[in-house]
Give the backbone structure.
Amino acid sequence: MTPEITSSAPTRGRLEAVLRSGRFAITAELNPPDSANPDDVFEAARPLGEVADAINATDASGANCHMSSLGISALLVRAGYGPVLQISCRDRNRIAVQGDVLGAAALGVRNVLCLTGDDVSAGDQPGAKPVFDFDSVSLVRTLRTMRDEGMFLSGRKISDPPKLFIGAAENPCVEPLEWRPERLKKKIEAGADFIQTNLIFDMDRFRTFMARVREMGLHERAFILAGIGPLTSARVARWMRSRVPGIHIPDALVERLDAASDPAALGQRLCIEAIQEVREIEGVSGVHIMAYRREHLVSEIILQSGVLDRRRILKG
Amino acid sequence: MYRLRLFASRHSRSFERIYTLLEGAMVAMDPVFRRVGYRRVEAVLTPIERLVKSLLFDCRMCGQCVLSSTGMSCPMNCPKGLRNGPCGGVRPGGFCEVKPQMRCVWVEAWSGATRMRHGEQISIVLPPVDHSLKGSSAWLRAAREKAEVRRAAKEAQRTTLARAFDDAREHEPSSAPLAPEPETSVEASRERRT
Ligand code: SF4
């Protein structure tokens, strides 16, 4: 695909259109390049773009420095994809964030995902100054204010407010488990239109979470996309569990990978099954695929899961 | 102190009660505070507030205390300074992502909130901290705000009445006055009544 500048901006992005029409949405996370070459972004987007309604541009996730989410998002728009601009509260204060959101919207970015962000200590530059001026909830409310009231948080007017589809994250499988749905509610109250969860490897925990979410009626107030990704080996699973903040992997799963003759194949199969399982859970509107270093398999995984069978992908 | 901090959130209900009393007293003192000047009162009160709250809650004097909405667990002790709930990195057992030896401030907050009368306040969406208020008295700020709201409500009541009975006001001005009462006479009448 050759990148081209899209000039006419539709009022709704593809992700929002798919979700609002009740179809099962697919988003996927792009592995950000450590380079200044736009082709690296286009290259990384290709296997995701085949199946995804939107591509997430991470914002130095894990507190590791890569090409910025704004830069990646702008390139993705240029190439005709619908990016999800991830904004972490860790690196920028309220002045920078509000300005960046206007810039992103001007560049054609519709979807934003508000995140707290992993602490700097998790990343490659632990000496950095953590900012956390906003938290993810106050960030969501701020973006809603910018969009709906046409105002900065200072009360100053925005002459042409950004048209945003506002997202927030939730981590249903980590402590405090019983409060996770309450926290989700708070994010929706703050103004979140859609939710992308962190990686789910524990279906029981996720089901319990979703049951409570349905009880509270939250699935009717925001679109919930379940975070799914393949594990490649028991070693990787153990590493993630101990080094990546907020990842819960049950022992039984690690043991299964340990015992498998081809753990990568097993991991992929489990990933496909997980997609099929969440597809059947009431209140789940889509999946968010995070296949770190396995991005080339994303379209295969999605196609094999069969979730696309029941719908035609929209263009644009 | 970490121990006392945990103690405080485990006895959130008692502290909620104490604070309600304290706040009521300070709101009642508003006319006096205004006469003396809030700046002067603040100079005296801030060190006391700092001492009490840093002992009990490891208070950082952000100046915008929200303990009543956070289960009496101070959110400024969260290494990420989160004001609206836990991050996604809470460790198994409820320990902090950044400081693994510390209980997550927000795990304590949620359980503290369940013990409080108005624990549901934890679901209120809080704005980001105004860093220009750091080091000032949150107690006085809260009391001043409540007193102000009360004053404004009274004002609204009086002007509504004055407008509804505008004939009366014209011919019998003292029956439906629009002009605000001077502070001292209001207090004097309140004192007469008690
Ligand atoms: S684990 Fe809890 S205390 Fe630690 S950074 Fe996250 S929210 Fe804050």
